[in-house]
Structure formats: C-alpha cells, structure tokens
Fold this protein.
Amino acid sequence: MSDYLRQLFFLQPLQEFRQILIQILTLFQNNRAMAQEPKFHRVDDLFKAAKRYSKSTEYYNLINFCKRMRHLGPYNAMLANIQMPGARFLLTADEWKRYNRIVKDTAHPIVILMPFSPVDFVFDLSDTISSEPLFQMPDDELLEQIKKQFEPKANINYELYLDRLIHNMALEGISLEAVKMGTQRGASIMIPNPEQRHKVNVSLNRGTVNVSAPAYYFIRYNKDLQAGGQLLSLIHELGHLYCHHLAHPDPSAEDSWTKREIYRDSEEFEAESVAQLVCDHFGIDTGNATISYIASYMYMYPEIPHDVSVDIILTASRQIIQMIEHKLNVKDGLLYKNNLSFQKKVLQNDRNRNTRTIRGTEIRYPSLFDNF
C-alpha cells in the first residue's frame, strides 16, 4: 500500500480502526497469500480484536447500513461502515458532480475495493458542497432524490433472476429437483450419495450444445412456491454453501475450502444474513422472514454467535449477487475447475466453434488449442 494511501487513513476518525483497515486491504491485495490460509479467520480476528460487530445491535446496524449503501456492494459497505459509521450516502467525486456537488478540501476520503484496481475513494454527502450556490438544493431533499435513483426496480422480474441463478448453479455443479414440501419449507442442500447419480446439464453455444456431468451438490426446493419464494429459498441454501457449511468438491484444488465446523444455529444465522443482504441488494420481497430472524435475534441475545464469520457472510453475499446479476462464464464455475472430463468437453466445444463452413468450404480459424 502506498505512503499516500496510508496518509489518507490518518485523516479518518475512529483511529482504532486505521491499522485494521490497512491490514484488511493489504490482505485483499495479496491474493497468493490469501489462497494459502482461510482469509475469513484472519479478517474476523481483526474485527474481534477491535470488538467490532460482535454485539447484536452493531451487527444489525451493519446489515441496515449495507442496505442503504447497496450500490457499493456488501463488502465495500462494511469497509465504509468501519471508516464512517454515520455516513448518509457515499459516492465518488465524479458521481457527486452529476448532482452539482463538489468534494470539500477538508473531506475524509472513504477507501473501498475496486475490481481490476487496488482501491477507489468515495465521499459522504456531508463532505460535499454545491457547485451552484445560488441554486443549491437542501441536503435532505437532495438525499431523497439520490436514494430514489439508486433504489432497486419496483417491478422485479423474479423469473429472470431465477433463470440466471439456476444457470449459474449448474456451472457450480449444483443439481436441482422441484418437489412438494408443504408451505413451511423452502429448500435444502446436501452432498449427494454416489448411488443417487445426480447430474447437471450445462448449455453451451446459446443452448445448441448440452454437456452433462455428475453433480457436486443437490438442492431440493419447493415446487409450489412462487418464483420469488423459490429465489429466496435458493439464495438461503447457497448461503450455506458459500459460507462453507459443506465441503469443497475437491480438497486438493487451489481454490478449495475446508468445511467449517460451527454450531447449527450459527450456520442458520450466517445463511439468513446472506439471504437478507442479497435480497436487500435487489429489493427482493422476503415477506419479513429474514428481517424478523435477525431482528428477533438482536432482541433475544446481546451478542452474535462467537463462531459466526462476518467476513465470509459478506463474501458469500457478493458471490451470490454476481450469480443473479448476470450469467457467468462456464470456465468460472466449480464444475470446469474441478471436473477434468467436463473441462475437456468444454474445450472441445471451443475448438468446434472455431470451425465454420462457408458455401461448402470448411474454414479453420486459428485457435489457442491448435498446438495441443
């Protein structure tokens, strides 16, 4: 991390968290080291050392903060919350210009992570001023206007979200079965027995080619639920998977994880937290199910379970959000990374796609695989 970035941190309030945040960002920048030991243990140790988010009220406030800052994503919202818990709304300097606001010289930059670059900076509304003083809009009025623009769509296309999620779940080696489960049950995830022979079918070339492979995981979900209810149920079960409540399909894989041995109540707390964060991000109606779970826990217990990982909850939420936002590349899934037979079929399909026939003449386009 540059000396300039370190100097920016010393402009921040909450001095006890400066070095903690620097260490978190350093961990993310050192991906190779993170792959060799579970990062969620190390980051959570930082939280615990600072006594951050261990109290139920603090954790509940974090969940609500992530909802208000949904445009940043769960993990960046957490980083922002550490640096400025009372922030009203955070945007980059360029984004504030769209609302005729400029950043004050005395502003406190909030550091967040960015894909394909180390960090970026966002600023709170309180650290900006109007670039047109004669036509200045009151802060409260402007804040309401901005919030409306960043709110999720009123008419959610649950079928579209569900279609993307199911497509990406196949890439992760997750087989689905819709069954009657009664009105009180949504879904359940498990590792299938070899005798069950569950398979997943992955469509390639826009559905013109289908490739099947044995499933790593199996989810049975309620066929009688509406699309929104099915989506919520699948998000919850994926929360269990990506919070590592189940073992990785290949323990020897480079990106493998170890099944976390935590209490069942803690597993449910993490999965419910993931479901709420993801649903809040998209504005998915949960019927108050996840909200009542987290809220009731807050009133019943002063602290969250000691073996809950705040870091892994936020990381799992981010992964599921990506699975709902768009269809992923087949080569990014667990199936391609861990099943050699499936990988060969995909590569062969890539070779075939490079062969075209024009007026009866076969044209062979150069391929990366021509030398193999």
About this structure: The longest helix spans residues 264-282. Residues 7-150 form one domain. The first strand starts at residue 90 and ends at 91. Residues 29 and 117 are 9 Å apart (CA to CA).
